[in-house]
Design goal:
The protein is of the alpha/beta class. It contains nine helices and twelve strands. Helix 5 links the parallel strand 6 and strand 7.
Length: 268
C-alpha cells in the first residue's frame, strides 16, 4: 500500500482540518494511507523530518508548516510533494492556493462600492505566512485603487488569532480613529471583530461593514459576508496533484483556486 504524509502545525484548526477532510475525500476509493504529522517549524530537526519523508511515497504540506530548507531538499531529491496554501518563489514546487488577490479585491469592492465605505481597517494575518503576506500586499494595492490616503485606512495586526485580533482591535477602538469597515484576512478574526464592535456599541451593518476571507458554519451562523473557496477542495486538488507526481507525471507551478462572494446582509 502506498503512503502519503501530511505535514501541518495544528490539525485542530478549522482551516487545516477542512483541508485534511478534503484530502481524505480524494483518497476514499484508493488504496493509499494518509498519515498526519504535526510539527513546530521553528524547532523541528530537518534531518529527522527528511528521514521520515523518505519512508513516504509523497508528502503534502499545509500552510507554510515546514521549513523552506526542508521543502527545497525534498523537491531536489525527487520526492513527490505538493504545498497547500503556500508556495516558494525560487523553487517550482507544485502548490495549490486560494486566489488571495482576487479575494481582497472583491471584499474591498463590496465595502467601498456596495456599502459606500471610505475608512477601512485591514485586520491582518501573519506576514511570514504566504497567505497573510499576499492578502496584506493585495490590500495595499486596493488602497491605491481607491486613492485612499494614510489617514483614511489602518492596519490592525491579528496574526490569524482570535485572541490577538480581539485585543488589538479593542486597543485600536480606544484610540478613537475613524473607521467604517473591517476587512479581515480570515473569517474567524472577522467574527471576533463583530463581537468586539457590538460590545463597543457599534451597529452592524449600519455603522460598520465587516467582511472576512474564508467561510464556514461559524460565518453562516454569525451572518458574516465572506469571500471564499471551498476549503476542502484545496485538499482534494492537492491530493490529485500529488498522485500525478507519484504516477510519474512531472508537475510544476501553482494551481490557483477561484473565490466568490457570500453576501449575508443581516450583520455585515
Amino acid at each position: 500500500m502506498q503512503h502519503i504524509g501530511v505535514i501541518t502545525n495544528d490539525q485542530s484548526q478549522i482551516f487545516q482540518n477542512s483541508v485534511i477532510q478534503g484530502m481524505h475525500q480524494a483518497l476514499v476509493t484508493k488504496q493509499i494511507a494518509l498519515t498526519i504529522k504535526e510539527i513546530n517549524k521553528t524547532t523541528v530537526d530537518v534531518t529527522e523530518l527528511l528521514h521520515y519523508t523518505h519512508s513516504l511515497d509523497g508528502v503534502l504540506v499545509i500552510a507554510d508548516a515546514a521549513p523552506n530548507d526542508y521543502l527545497r531538499q525534498v523537491y531536489q531529491q525527487g520526492i513527490p510533494i505538493t504545498l497547500v496554501s503556500h508556495h516558494l518563489d525560487d523553487v517550482s514546487i507544485p502548490a495549490v492556493i486560494t486566489d488571495s488577490r482576487e479575494g481582497i479585491r472583491l471584499m474591498m469592492a463590496y465595502c467601498m462600492q456596495a456599502c459606500q465605505r471610505r475608512h477601512p481597517i485591514f485586520l491582518a494575518g501573519l506576514s511570514e505566512q504566504r497567505d497573510g503576506y499576499e492578502r496584506l500586499v493585495s490590500f495595499h494595492n486596493e488602497v491605491l485603487r481607491y486613492n485612499l490616503v494614510e489617514s483614511e485606512y489602518h492596519i490592525v495586526q491579528g496574526d490569524f488569532s482570535v485572541d490577538i485580533a480581539t485585543q488589538n482591535l479593542k486597543a485600536f477602538i480606544a484610540q478613537g480613529h475613524p473607521f467604517d469597515a473591517v476587512i479581515a484576512a480570515d473569517y474567524l478574526m472577522a467574527i471576533a471583530a463583530m463581537k468586539v464592535l457590538q460590545s463597543a456599541g457599534y451597529r452592524l451593518p449600519e455603522d460598520v461593514s465587516v467582511v472576512g476571507f474564508g467561510d464556514g458554519k461559524e460565518a453562516i451562523h454569525a451572518g458574516l459576508t465572506t469571500v471564499a473557496t471551498d476549503v476542502e477542495s484545496l485538499g482534494m486538488f492537492a491530493v490529485r496533484q500529488l498522485l500525478m507526481q507519484m504516477n510519474g507525471h512531472p508537475i510544476s507551478g501553482t494551481t490557483v483556486i477561484n473565490v466568490e462572494m457570500n453576501i449575508r446582509n443581516h450583520n455585515s
